Amino acid sequence: MTAKLEKLDGNKVKLEITVSGDQFEEGIQKAYQKLKGKFNIPGFRKGKAPRGIVENFYGPQVFYEDALDEIIPEAYRAAVEENKLDVVSRPEYDVLSIDKKDGVVLTAEVFVKPEVKLGKYEGLKVKKPVEKIAAKDVDAEVEKTREQNARWVEVDRAAKDGDTVIVDFLGSVDGVPFEGGEAKEQSLVLGEGRFIPGFEEQIVGMKAGEQRDINVKFPEGYTPELAGKDAVFAITMHTVKEKELPELDDDFAQDVSEFDTLAEYKKDIKKKMQERADMKAKAEMENQLLTAIADDIKADIPDVMIENQIDYQVQQMSYQLMYQGMKLEDYLQYIGMTMDDLRNEYREGSAQQVKMRLAVEALLDKLKIDPTEKDIEAKYEELAKAENKTVQEYKDMMGAQELDYFKDRVAMEQLFDYLVSKAEVQEVDAKAWEKEQAEKAKKESEKKETKKATAKKPAAKKETAKTAEKTAEKKPAAKKTAAKKETTKKA
């Protein structure tokens, strides 16, 4: 196999691949072995006719198409490796000539990863959102744990908001019970607003054993049979329970943690909360740095790379919906969105993701970051220690797939450590930063919605026509390739 490389426009290349007659012969023989069971030749049992007999009966080119399927993928892979190409799209094949003696000549057009010219990546200005964990933050976290470990105890008093009550109820409209309006020993937390307006409020004040009729009005947006109607619910109160929180003492700390005292428990909580806050701050800085670097690169990015990223985003969404028992097509129909709409929603973010990935790869190459085995093992030890596990236990917990990408993870950490060390860091209050980012995101969202709402239909049609024109421009080439393959098939 030999291959000649020709560079086309837009980071597209053409490989002219020549497969020898001997290689083509091997492909024909493989095709014969796969297909011989399908041929029924007079004088031979089905599948037992020699290859020469089959070729005489059906024509010498009978196995050519399947032979091409055998040899082309391997020849293409070898050509890509020989020319050290970083391919980002599927190849478009075109068979130029086929000869049993001279072999096969074909072309493969494919997009390759673009050359990236980095802009500024040192001395960048970034903001570090700093959060210092205070005693009140620790107390709030402890209080959450208290709530989770609370128990409900029965009390002999009138029910109030926050209590859990056990009730029977029977609802009726104009004296006639309606479907779904009856329940026995229904548990209800007063004040959560799980029932229609006015229901829970009128139960407040009832005691165990008390009966009461309450009047409510169904919301206009309720089911058609009940929307906007007045109803009466006959309530029977069985039980009133209040939440009892555990005492904040050393016994509580021992019950919910591995520590003997409440002071030790709180100290550990503060340490972990600070670690999480520091990690969040680091991630924020890394995102700022990578966004700035990606926006400053120069690269002729093929559309196919962005389309591939959109494909990935759509696939991930499809998987998430599948776990919830819903198909993507049904979900899109439910929210009134087409697949094109969804892909356009992902387009801007996907383009940014591609730029970031290209920037990272260019930086890793520029800075010659390549973690050693020692670096990798040191990281394993650090993470295993944080989980109170041995290195092997930690690796077993990670799984084979995560282990495969662990070197990349270490490389990324080394890269960002370098970038942060070279950046001009300004510390800001974390809460103020979060508020600023939330307002910024809100404005961006409103801007997009306004743009959609004010978009003129003619402009949309023009864009659609433009897109269709681009598609139409691509179709003749596809037909040409298909026509050549069909000609080959009939040869």
Task: Supply the key terms.
single chain, 4 domains, Trigger factor, domain 2, four-stranded antiparallel beta sheet, alpha+beta, extended, Alpha-Beta Plaits, five-stranded antiparallel beta sheet, 491 residues, Chitinase A, domain 3, disordered C terminus, 16 helices
Spans of at least 5 consecutive residues whose pLDDT stays below 50 are 458-491
Helix content: 40-55%
Q: How far apart lie the N and C ends?
A: 23 Å
CATH 4th-level superfamily of the largest domain = Trigger factor, C-terminal domain
Radius of gyration: 34 Å
| Biggest sheet character | 5 strands, antiparallel
Assess the beta-strand content as a share of residues.
15-25%
Textual characterization of the structure:
The protein is built from 16 helices and eleven strands. It is α+β, with helices and mostly antiparallel strands. The protein has four domains: 2-111, Alpha-Beta Plaits (2-Layer Sandwich); 153-244, Chitinase A, domain 3, CATH 3.10.50.40; 265-456, Trigger factor, domain 2 (Orthogonal Bundle); 457-491. α4 packs across α7 and α8 (303-323) packs across α10. It is extended.
